[in-house]
Design a protein that fits this description.
196 residues; 78% helix; mainly alpha
């Protein structure tokens, strides 16, 4: 099979999920979004489960690429200031270019409540955040234990739905109207003895 076309279909499926939700994810909708002949998605992904699996795998691939693109090839943030900038960048991605991917991921999580195999496929995304955030705290020279990493990760995850909905009063109340300030305050809460 043509890998470029397969990726185009998977990206189109992400766009469909983000825009139309789980009920809107059909082979025909993916064909239309990818601008390919009717039946193409069905040829690549014959069943709905195959289509869901393909979208989930693509979300995992894209998810792993985002932090790498923000950090670059370097060792990661060297101090609290750089870590706060990285976290703010991750949140900006959620509200900006990564929005379709994150919406699709949340739709897939909902599907995963009825399809345990899908939940298992997506599990590395959220589970990996805890270890990754602990490593980032350590790289930045901040206290880094599982409890601090949990607090940081859960706060960031909790911010996601609010960033996606974009309700201005909620964003202001949560401090998400200024992502740089939010990230600095979050680090100060997680590591109060180390962050100015």
């Amino acid at each position: 099979m043509n890998q470029d076309r397969r990726d185009r279909l998977r990206d189109a499926a992400i766009a469909v999920l983000a825009e139309a939700g789980g009920r809107g994810l059909t082979h025909r909708a993916v064909d239309a979004a990818a601008d390919v002949p009717t039946g193409t998605a069905k040829n690549y992904f014959p069943t709905r489960d195959a289509l869901l699996r393909a979208v989930a795998e693509r979300c995992v691939e894209q998810y792993r690429a985002v932090p790498a693109s923000l950090v670059g090839a370097g060792p990661g943030p060297a101090d609290a200031r750089q870590l706060a900038a990285l976290l703010a960048g991750l949140l900006r991605d959620v509200a900006g270019p990564g929005r379709p991917r994150v919406l699709a991921y949340l739709e897939l999580l909902t599907e995963g409540t009825r399809r345990p195999w899908l939940a298992a496929l997506l599990d590395p995304i959220a589970a990996g955040d805890f270890a990754a955030h602990e490593q980032l705290l350590h790289a930045a020279g901040l206290p880094a234990g599982p409890e601090r990493a949990r607090a940081l990760t859960l706060a960031l995850h909790g911010a996601v739905p609010h960033l996606l909905s974009g309700a201005p009063a909620t964003l202001t109340a949560a401090g998400l109207d200024d992502l740089d300030r939010f990230a600095r305050a979050l680090l100060a809460s997680v590591c109060p003895e180390e962050t100015p």
